[in-house]
Design a protein that fits this description.
The chain is built from 27 helices and 16 strands. By secondary structure, it is α+β, with helices and mostly antiparallel strands. The protein folds into 5 domains: 261 residues, PAS domain (Beta-Lactamase), CATH 3.30.450.20; 76 residues, no CATH class; 134 residues, Reverse transcriptase/Diguanylate cyclase domain (Alpha-Beta Plaits), CATH 3.30.70; 103 residues; 109 residues, Orthogonal Bundle (Arc Repressor Mutant, subunit A). The strands form 3 sheets. A 6-stranded antiparallel β-sheet has the order 3-2-1-6-5-4. A 5-stranded antiparallel β-sheet has the order 8-7-11-10-9. The protein is extended, with a radius of gyration of 39 Å. This is HTH araC/xylS-type domain-containing protein. InterPro entries: CdaR_GGDEF, Homeodomain-like_sf, HTH_AraC, HTH_AraC-typ_CS, Tscrpt_reg_AraC-type_HTH. GO terms for molecular function: DNA-binding transcription factor activity; sequence-specific DNA binding.
């Protein structure tokens, strides 16, 4: 009987194939296991050395890149005119020189990996820091632990020290820092140093580590830089490792009696040596385990093969035959069934289904959010919108919808208080809290709107309508309590269908803009508001802006502040449209930025990194206070500037050009008028006004030509002569280049739009006319 069974089994083609594969695979696995173990010890050094050296090189590149960026900043600072002026100047001028240099330090210290930047002066032991400003003595600075070793910079071009923050700021107590110092050289002698304090945790958090190895970073003096906690070995043992390695790329060492392979590499930027230790005992143990497992696997494969033969012949044929009939419509091709043919087909069908289901489940929230974002920004067509709606919003009805905009109050001020990573986490938390808050009663989708806000699309799950403004008010309170964030919410009118969602979103943003008058933390419902029609900036607004700028130029800070208060009071009284008010404020600040850039004045802190978005999330009272804080120091700087010799000379040049506008004058004539050389006049005029003498004279002539074209009936040839052009064609070419229109077209358009067109903005110039 047994003989007959064996004959039957061996007679089956599939059974013979399985048996042959079983014997071949088991033999192959056995040979590989024995051969691998025999060759492992010979190739261990090479095989282990390469990945560890590559990992060390990767970490070396990470640290080098971070330090190179900071070192470039330190080198730039050591040659910056403002820094040199502070370091090389006498002690009596320290405070004045420090004021100019500190703004530059603050600008560079905004990177997330930089705690602070300091400039150390050796002459009188004073120091200037980006965070605390000027200190007359090192010991008076908020943190001066570096004073013990900063003197070493006189003998070294670069110092990098690991240290602990020992200053007066309680938030930074115990913080680990990496201090990078570069010398400031004066007449061949080191007069000071630039010191950049880097965040220790931020730098080394980017290092790649491997669970089976240990990594250490030492400086050239043999001091441990990394890690700072949970050292796996005593420092005395590690000193022996350093002595054994010396400058070799790798070596076999023993620590506490256990064998390790040590690899190292050196940094040409920081001078550090990076060391990795791999336990050899564990590696040998693993390879022995692998050998035994492969032998065991060989035996298991034999058992599996025999089991497969049994299962194939006695258990698998009947279900396989049924499956084969389902997949093969031709009954003649069905036969007994073939596992080799069926497995790929079934596996592919099941695998594809699982993958698609998983991807769809993971991607649905992001797809819905992107759909809402495209819908509110009107960047999606109707057909595409409906197609995606049917795919992404199963279970939703086509209306009605509610649209909310949740905006962070004082967003620019809020953003300055947190690092970028923390801002992203808080915005993520806001998004989750909004979704969780509305989830019980509403179908909810959130999407990013602008950088200060998130748009929320809601559809009620219940038949009765909920009190949405009341619910939104509770949400504002909860966000303030949990996240300590003040937000305002704008609510648009109910959208009857998805086609009306964009309109509802625009209404929500418009309602939200009335935060300008109503303050922070409020609910602004468009349906309950009387929103006036949007007004354009008119002559009265330009008059107010001109008065503020004129008061700055005189300078008269009291008049400028008074005009700001009068404008704010008028805006409140008239309840002017918020977008109009914000546009006016932005125009004024852009003008002030232009004045500061042209005259190289120090910007107030409020304008150090100004964008229009800075004022869109503020209320009017704070905008009013901010404008006052800006015009006061700017007025003082302009007043000082008007007393300089260069200012008076440039004013004389401008007056000369205005008085001789119709003559064929040039740079040489202007220089002769003030008894100076052409090069000196050109440089002085460019520095004071931000433009060249030729360009300024051309603008004067074109402006005068515009007035004559609008207010006189003179011919174009006559106007050309009156503004200094002897050739009419040359005048027309210059006019078209500056105004993008010919003089004739300009005169024609002025007849019809003179009452309504906004007057052209004044030229941005660092020199201002007297008001007398």
């Amino acid at each position: 009987m047994l003989r007959l069974k064996l004959k039957y089994l061996l007679h089956n083609k599939q059974t013979r194939l399985i048996l042959m594969l079983t014997v071949t695979v088991s033999l192959f696995i056995t040979l590989i296991g024995l051969f691998s173990y025999g060759e492992y010890r010979d190739a261990l050094d090479t095989e282990l050395n390469t990945p560890n050296v590559e990992l060390l090189q990767i970490n070396l590149d990470v640290t080098n890149r971070a330090f190179r960026e900071s070192d470039n900043k330190a080198v730039d600072l050591s040659f910056h005119p403002a820094i040199l002026k502070y370091v090389e100047g006498p002690a009596a001028n320290n405070a004045a020189a420090a004021a100019e240099a500190q703004n530059y330090l603050r600008t560079l210290a905004t990177e997330p990996d930089i705690h602070s930047i300091s400039v150390v002066k050796f002459q009188d032991h004073s120091v200037l820091t980006s965070s605390a400003g000027y200190s007359a003595a090192w010991e008076d600075a908020p943190e001066s632990a570096w004073s013990a070793w900063i003197g070493e910079i006189k003998n070294k071009p670069l110092l990098i020290k690991r240290r602990e923050y020992l200053g007066s700021d309680p938030k930074l107590n115990g913080t680990q820092l990496l201090s990078l110092a570069r010398p400031v050289v004066q007449d061949g002698e080191v007069a000071g140093a630039v010191l950049i304090d880097l965040d220790y945790d931020w730098l080394f958090s980017k290092m790649y580590t491997h669970l089976s190895s240990y990594q250490f970073v030492y400086n050239l003096e043999g001091e441990l830089i990394y890690p700072k906690l949970n050292l796996p070995f005593p420092l005395a043992e590690m000193k022996g490792v350093l002595d054994t390695l010396e400058v070799s790329p790798f070596a076999h060492v023993k620590i506490e009696g256990q064998p390790y392979m040590a690899n190292q590499t050196f940094s040409n930027v920081t001078g550090w040596r990076l060391i990795s230790l791999v336990p050899m005992e564990q590696l040998l143990k693993n390879v022995e385990l692998a050998r035994n497992m492969m032998l065991m696997l060989s035996l298991i494969s034999i058992l599996v093969g025999l089991s497969a033969i049994y299962y194939y012949n006695y258990a698998a044929f009947r279900p396989l035959k049924r499956i084969n009939k389902l997949l093969s419509p031709d009954p003649k091709a069905t036969g007994q069934g073939n596992l080799y043919d069926l497995e790929p087909v079934i596996g592919k069908l099941v695998g594809d289904f699982q993958n698609r289901s998983r991807v769809a489940a993971w991607s649905l929230p992001e797809l819905r959010s992107k759909w809402v974002q495209d819908l509110t920004t009107k960047s999606i067509g109707t057909q595409e919108m409906r197609t995606k709606w049917e795919h992404y919003f199963e279970g939703w009805a086509d209306g009605p919808f509610e649209t909310l905009v949740v905006s962070i109050d004082r967003h620019s001020q809020w953003a300055r208080a947190y690092m970028e990573e923390d801002q992203m986490l808080l915005k993520y938390a806001i998004n989750n809290m909004v979704a969780e808050y509305f989830e019980p009663s509403w179908r909810t989708v959130t999407a990013p709107s602008q950088k200060d806000s998130v748009v929320v699309l809601l559809q009620s799950k219940e038949q009765q309508e909920a009190d949405l403004p009341e619910s939104a008010g509770k949400l504002v309170t909860r966000l303030g309590e949990v996240l300590n964030i003040s937000v305002s919410i704008g609510i648009g009118q109910t959208a009857g269908s998805m086609l009306q969602v964009a309109r509802s979103y625009s209404e929500a943003r418009l309602a939200l803009s009335y935060r300008l008058y109503k303050g922070y933390g409020g609910i602004h419902d468009y349906a309950s508001m009387e929103v006036p029609a949007e007004e354009h900036t008119g002559a009265a607004d330009d008059f107010w802006k001109a008065e503020v700028l004129d008061a700055l130029k005189i300078p008269d800070k009291d008049a400028a502040v008074d005009w700001i208060h009068r404008w704010a009071a008028d805006a409140r009284k008239k309840n002017a449209g918020p977008h109009k008010v914000l546009r006016i404020v932005d125009d004024l600040l852009e003008e002030i930025l232009g004045i500061a850039a042209a005259g190289s004045y120090t910007l107030p802190s409020e304008l150090a990194d100004y964008t229009r978005h800075q004022v869109t999330t503020m209320e009017l009272a704070e905008i009013e206070e901010m404008l006052c804080r800006i015009v006061i120091p700017m007025s003082a700087q302009l007043g000082e500037h008007r007393q300089t010799k260069e200012y008076r000379l440039v004013q004389s040049m401008i007056l000369y050009m205005e008085e001789h506008l119709q003559e064929n004058i040039g740079l040489q004539d202007v220089a002769s008028h003030v008894n100076m050389g052409v090069s000196s006049v050109s440089n002085m005029f460019k520095e004071e006004t931000g433009t060249t003498v030729y360009d300024y004279l051309t603008h004067l002539r074109i402006d005068q030509a515009c007035e004559l074209l609008q207010n006189s009936t003179l011919k174009i040839a006559e106007i050309a002569l009156l503004v200094g052009y002897q050739n009419e064609n040359s005048f027309i070419r210059t006019f078209r280049k500056n105004k993008s229109v010919t003089p004739g077209k300009f005169r024609e358009s002025s007849k019809y739009s003179n009452e309504y067109a906004d007057p052209p903005k004044p030229r941005h110039s660092g020199v201002f006319e007297d008001s007398e």
